[in-house]
Fold this sequence. Notes:
single chain; alpha+beta; 14-stranded mixed β-sheet; about 25% strand; globular
Amino acid sequence: MVEIREIAASKKELIKYVKFGIDLYKGNDCFVPPLILDDVNTLRPDKNPAFDYCQAQSFMAFRDGKPVGRITAIINSKVNERTGRKAMRFGFVDFIDDAEVVDALFEAASAWGRKKGMNEMIGPMGFTDLDHEAMLIDGFDELGTMATIYNYPYYPRHMERMGFGKEADWVEYRITIPESIPDKYLRVARMVQERYGLKVKIYSSRKKLKEEYGRALFDLINRAYDGLYGYSPLSERQINYYIDMYLGIIRLDNVCLITDADDRLICVGIAMPSMSKALRKSGGKLFPTGWYHLLRALKGNSDVVDLLLVAVDPEYQNKGVNALLFNYLIPTFNRCGYREAESNLELEDNENVQRQWELFPRRLHRRRRVWGKKI
Length: 375
């Protein structure tokens, strides 16, 4: 018999909740654990400013007192107002390969959503696009990244069994970094820089970056991503939260900002050495030794770089600004010793994003999906 329990939004209860999603993958060589404290804080209303407009309830499934599954039901009222939908999201979902367990988890989440007036269920999705989203449906034998979800191959089989269908698919590429900048990008970069008076800005001070473009960076993300599937615009409180969270850990030489002639931010590219192996060694914990593995990786102990973010102002999209970005990043990546790059998630129908890789050797090595169903 399966017992479903509501999980309180306390640190103690959420640590157990998050650890289940790590313990389930013990012995799996492709799983990359999250930092436990990061996921715990994401699920706490007193820590995550997304709760200003979101509601959430986490559930765990138990059999004979042993945890066998988890799921978090989320209602993002801001996105629902924008789309006109009454959609409940589900995220942080993990379960053993057992239909009784899976059905009980999803029914508990669905029932919570129905009580809140929702009539459909979509996921896996987080509170915002900066949370992990989309279930792996192809590429199970590939090492994951810190920005993505890993799950077992039986997950999508259960989604189909329960009657969930495709909402949206994302693709991911492993890209070979060239030893020199392709000629086409050199020509286009010179042209767009001269035509629009663009400037490349590089920072060696985190404080100065935060002061001059911290807020502008996340404002740009809101503009650039506004039309993408499920996007939840970041509030002022969220922007302040993420400025401190992300700009405090990124490698500044892996960040490139491009401004117009008036110093207005119109493009940004943020990358980071792959933290996958370091996170695996840490087990999701900073202490006692996890911080050491993460610090080593952050300082460049990797030949793979994760492309975390590329955002271009809608006014400058399809004008070749990306070429100027790569003009800086390719030589930088070579100096850092990176040989390959992970694109991370790209919507399969986002041709503008995928076109930027056409001059690079690459392979499509992962595909993932957000599922949907009426409840």
